[in-house]
């Protein structure tokens, strides 16, 4: 076929990668598209999924079609809920154009290999709109073509719908500062009715070819169909573990240890005198807080277990998890930062250059730690109130998940000794409160080095 540009052949395998004709492994881009009426938690799912996939190392970006619409015209121009009527030609045209723009941006993001997963956060309530997306993703110009997975959120529980409208919709940029909360609520209910007129749920028979999950009443039940590849199965597992119930997660390091006092890394030293004081005060703190059905998870290191033992008669369960043990510093266990620098200067420099990926010889990296902690995150998602007693590096990884921090900043998050960090998940974010106890402790924080390679030991 001389003169005709040949498309590279691709061979599919089961790992979520394809092998092209040059025998190179290429990750298959995935599009995850939300489906459902307004106020069904689609943006909540999209935010949460995006944060989770990025944290486990799958680069993901969400494309919210509502934001494109708001850029195209404001609510006054739209004329409130009528804009969303299936009979409003102008409204339909603007909404279609916005969806197309978002889909094309998503395509560019995946084609340029900027990321591996794109989430299309829109209602996608009609079969025609879903077909437009699927056809676009299968187009020949994408090499390899994108896999598409739909997440349909179906909800007929008025309590969930109402709390969603009150919590997020009335303060959405569509309404905030434009009308009262009551008027916004009323307008939004009418908007839902407009969407109901054209809603075609994903259908078992008519949509047999699609890959999808139906999440029914915020996770009371699920219907999963045609899951294809690694990313989709991770998504399904994640969605089956999250819940909406209000709760808080408390993070604390063990009390100050004897090794902390002399600046040594890792090891398995007991608590110092101040560390023991912290353990007692921690007990008082939680006695006063009176937290419903509190679970306590501790690492198996002596310093953490000593701290957790004080909690035994307050908490429902105290569990000791090896997976919560501190980062393994390998050949550097028991050294101070100064020893580390003078004995292994090259290694020390490498860690400063890329702390997230640096792996201690015979030990672990922060990246390894994230992989080790994934089951902990999943379990935290499933639980109600939990106190985690662990270590500086481990808690940085957990904190980064809940507060959506990137990999460069993660190893430098501040998790000081003798401090309780209270995390309260909110609709699209997580509230962070820090309670610092008035008990002296050394500062174990090592600042990110300046570009000239120097680092400072900041005061706590
Ligand atoms: O990754 P860096 O910043 O070195 O911090 C991790 C270090 O923090 C320490 C204290 O220096 O944690 P912890 O006291 O919480 O067990 C070390 O054990 C660990 O190696």
Give a written overview of the molecule:
Keywords: ATP-binding, Hydrolase, Nucleotide-binding. One of its GO terms (molecular function) is fructose-2,6-bisphosphate 2-phosphatase activity. The protein has 460 residues and is α/β, with parallel strands linked by helices. The longest helix is centred in the N-terminal third of the chain and has 23 residues, at 89-111. It has helices at 42-55, 65-72, 75-78, 89-111, 127-138, 158-169, 181-196, 230-239, 258-261, 273-289, 302-309, 337-343, 345-353, 366-382, 392-403; strands at residues 10-12, 17-20, 25-27, 30-35, 60-64, 117-121, 147-154, 212-216, 221-225, 249-253, 295-298, 317-320, 386-390, 419-425, 430-436. It has a six-stranded mixed β-sheet, sandwiched between helices. Strands 12-11-13-10-14-15 form a six-stranded mixed β-sheet, sandwiched between helices. It is globular, with a radius of gyration of 25 Å. The protein has two domains: 23-239, 3-Layer(aba) Sandwich (Rossmann fold); 249-436, Phosphoglycerate mutase-like (Rossmann fold), CATH 3.40.50.1240. Bound molecules: 2,6-di-O-phosphono-beta-D-fructofuranose (FDP). 2,6-di-O-phosphono-beta-D-fructofuranose (FDP) is lined by residues 253, 257, 260, 265-266, 326-327, 329, 391-393, 411, 444, 446.
Which ligands occur here? 2,6-di-O-phosphono-beta-D-fructofuranose
CATH architecture of the largest domain: 3-Layer(aba) Sandwich
The secondary-structure class comes to alpha/beta
Percent in helix:
25-40%
Key phrases:
Rossmann fold, 6-stranded mixed sheet, single chain, fructose-2,6-bisphosphate 2-phosphatase activity, 2 domains, 460 residues, His_PPase_superfam, nucleotide-binding, 15 strands, binds 2,6-di-O-phosphono-beta-D-fructofuranose, 15 helices, disordered N terminus, P-loop_NTPase, globular, ATP binding, alpha/beta
